[in-house]
Inverse folding.
């Protein structure tokens, strides 16, 4: 019999996609800080693996990864996704989002993203939110799956996530404030 235990907290990571950062980022960045505390944002980098968001967000789309200083319980993922969905709606113009927010948790073992779309490999959390096992850490590298989105399967993303994973491991070894 297994004995239930609380897992280590995860590092909240949010992928932000947009073609017009100046139109929203200062305000949305401040909302993120007020809600989840200090974070580090990556530089903008190309999002060109698909044209899925082009019509809604415009072009050229770039991405930033934001990683929060405070580690969080993994069971907070559904609440976080519901909050990011509300932020997307609040800043929409004429029914079109200006940005896409994809929150997830990075742990020593994996990257789990939250989504509102069901699929065979996703686990239902609650309130219309599923958890997507996007990447797995194995043998000192990120391993993708047949369902991993191409942008997350690429080396540019995996390199960034490896750096965040090291930061996460360092945070785990220090007492949280």
């Amino acid at each position: 019999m297994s004995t239930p235990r609380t897992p280590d907290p995860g590092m909240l990571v949010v992928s932000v996609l947009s073609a017009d950062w100046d139109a929203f980022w200062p305000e949305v960045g401040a909302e993120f800080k007020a809600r989840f505390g200090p974070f580090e944002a990556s530089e903008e980098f190309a999002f060109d693996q698909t044209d899925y968001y082009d019509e809604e967000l415009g072009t050229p789309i770039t991405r930033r990864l934001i990683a929060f200083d405070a580690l969080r319980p993994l069971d907070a993922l559904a609440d976080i996704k519901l909050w990011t969905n509300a932020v997307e709606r609040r800043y929409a113009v004429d029914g079109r989002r200006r940005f896409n927010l994809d929150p997830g948790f990075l742990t020593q073992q994996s990257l789990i993203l939250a989504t509102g779309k069901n699929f065979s490999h996703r686990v239902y959390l609650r309130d219309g939110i599923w958890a997507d096992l996007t990447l797995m850490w194995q043998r000192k590298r990120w391993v993708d799956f047949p369902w991993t989105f191409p942008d997350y399967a690429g080396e540019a993303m995996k390199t960034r996530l490896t750096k965040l994973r090291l930061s996460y491991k360092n945070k785990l070894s220090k007492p949280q404030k």
Remarks:
- Residues 93 and 112 are 29 Å apart (CA to CA).
- The chain has a mean pLDDT of 95.
- The first strand starts at residue 10 and ends at 18.
